[in-house]
Amino acid sequence: MQNVIEIKRNIQNRVSFIKQAGVSSLLFIVLVGLSLTVLTVGYMSTMRNLQSSATTTHAQTQAQMQAMIGYHALIKYLKKESLENINKIETGTVSGGTEPVEFKKFACGADQYCFDLIGKSGGASAILRANFNIIDELETKSQSGSVFAGGLRVNKLEDLSAKGITLEVAGGIINKNNNHVYGESELTTAGITVIPYIPKDFINPEEARKDANYIFYLVDSVAKCAINNIFDSSIIPNKKIEIETELGSVGSVSCPSNVTYNNSVWTVDGSNGNLPGVLWFEGDVIVNLSKDTYFKNTVISTQKIKTELLNETKDSLYEAYAPHHFVLTADTIELKDERLNQICPDNFPLQYCAEKGTLKSTTLMQEMPAVMSNILFLAQAIELSAGKEKQHNIVANYYGNIMANGASGGTGGASGKFTGTGVLNIRGNLMVVGEADMTNMLGDFSMKLSNADEAGNYIPVYKKVFNIGGIRYM
Q1: d(CA 184, CA 192)
Q2: Which of 159, 147, 123, 115 is nearest to 445 (CA)?
Q3: Would the pTM count as exceeding 0.70?
Q4: Backbone phi, then psi, for 215, in 5-degree steps?
Q5: Cβ-count burial 111-145 (b if 16+ within 10 Å, e if not)
């Protein structure tokens, strides 16, 4: 009883926990709301960061893809260009994707070509570094047509006879004097077939020195002569001279008498016998052709070769032959044997003669260095004297492949032009391979081009060996 009374007495002093339950719930709701707000804001911030990161990654990936596209486009470009042109490249752009890709070349070692390709997309950029190994190797190919790498301008189509052969001309067109071009029907009527010139690297005069037999050069302004690649029957037991050997000064008894040097020009006297083989000259050369003697040599000059016709009279015939063509044009077995003994005498050239009076096998004659025998003239510029067939029946025939970076003819026009009067007969391939100079046929001048024997069409050219090295993103 006493306990009941005590409880009633203290009941007013007790704290009511039931009354505080609402505040706790409210506080819990507020805290939960704040937490959700923080989580939401954090999530949104994370999403923005992820989106920004994804955008950056996408742009970087696209930039890398652009650089890779540029890399493949650069490979296609380099494979088409000559090594000479590749050496001139410093910077540029290639296309193949949505926009051009810039590239820059930098030095990275002998025969090595390195480029940085810069791909860009959405403000991002990527650098792809590529390495290529590119070298030139001499090989041989059959050239079955004439070449005018810088273009060809002809006054009258009837002045150009080229039936049965193909002309490789820059752009695949022949120009008129009035800057128009001859139409397809005009070319067809004239029997002329033209195709676009595809860049190629022909052998250059400097490279050909090691494959020559008689070498003429200057030492401190003194004219010298040397021999190389000769079988010499007077040397025992070793009868081969395969390393360039100096003979002495031009004009002395040790040097060939039919080659002289005056006023900075070499002169080869075609009326005074023939040296067997390939003649190489440092500087300008004049080749005097005689109507009484066949000229049958390969002549190479580091500068210009000019031909002159000696003692021109009515009804005169002048003929110049590359050594192999001299044999190929023989129309009887007896004449062929006679000519073989002339180009392969006792002291015969080792490049294309197997022994006295005998050429190397057919297969070897299509390989280096035997194909040097298919070249008549090789120089930076060529000036050929034409025959005056209409006026005086003076005929000038050139048999073999004629190769030049520029050309001139007739009365002495500038490099890249055939001018004057007369008829130029070339049985072989005329290759004017200087891409900067257009060949012009002007005046009362005509050119007759005709195919040589197929075996005589093989010539030395450079083959570009292209190897792809490593690539990496910088």
Answers
A1: 9
A2: 159
A3: yes
A4: -120, 130
A5: eebbbbbbbbbeebbbbbbbbbebebebebeebeb
174-191 burial, b for 16+ CB within 10 Å, e for fewer?
bbeeeeeebeeeebeebe
* Residue in 334, 326, 298, 297 with CA at minimum distance from that of residue 456: 326
Q: Are strands 417-418 and 430-432 parallel, antiparallel or unpaired?
A: unpaired
Q: Which residues pair with 448 in a beta bridge?
A: 161, 425
CA distance 281 to 243: 17
Residues 6+ apart with CB under 8 A from 7: none
Secondary structure of 66-121 as H, E, C letters: HHHHHHHHHHHHHHHCCHHHHHHCCEEEECCCCCCEEEEEECCCCCEEEEEEEEEE
CB-based burial of residue 283 (10 Å sphere; 0-12 exposed, 13-18 middle, 19+ buried)? middle
Tokens of 286: 């004049």
Tokens representing residue 415 in the block? 């490099």
Q: How far is CA 287 from CA 104, 307, 320, 324, in A?
A: 47, 5, 10, 19
Q: DSSP assignment, residue 349?
A: B
* Tens of each residue's pLDDT in the chain, 474 residues: 455 445 455 555 555 555 555 667 777 676 766 766 666 655 565 556 544 444 445 556 777 788 888 888 888 888 777 777 788 888 888 876 667 888 888 888 777 889 888 888 767 788 888 888 888 777 888 888 888 888 888 888 888 888 778 899 988 998 887 778 889 899 888 888 999 988 778 888 998 999 999 999 999 999 999 999 999 887 777 789 999 999 999 989 889 999 999 999 999 998 876 688 999 999 999 999 999 899 999 999 999 999 999 988 888 899 999 999 999 999 999 999 999 999 999 999 999 999 999 999 999 999 999 999 999 999 988 888 888 887 788 888 999 999 987 666 554 433 456 666 788 888 888 888 876 677 877 666 678 887 766 888 888 887 778 788 778 886
Q: How far apart are CA 166 and CA 196, in angstroms?
A: 10
Nearest to 118 by CA among 364, 358, 473: 473
CA–CA distance, 175 with 156 (Å, rounded to integer): 10
Residues pairing with 355 in the sheet:
358
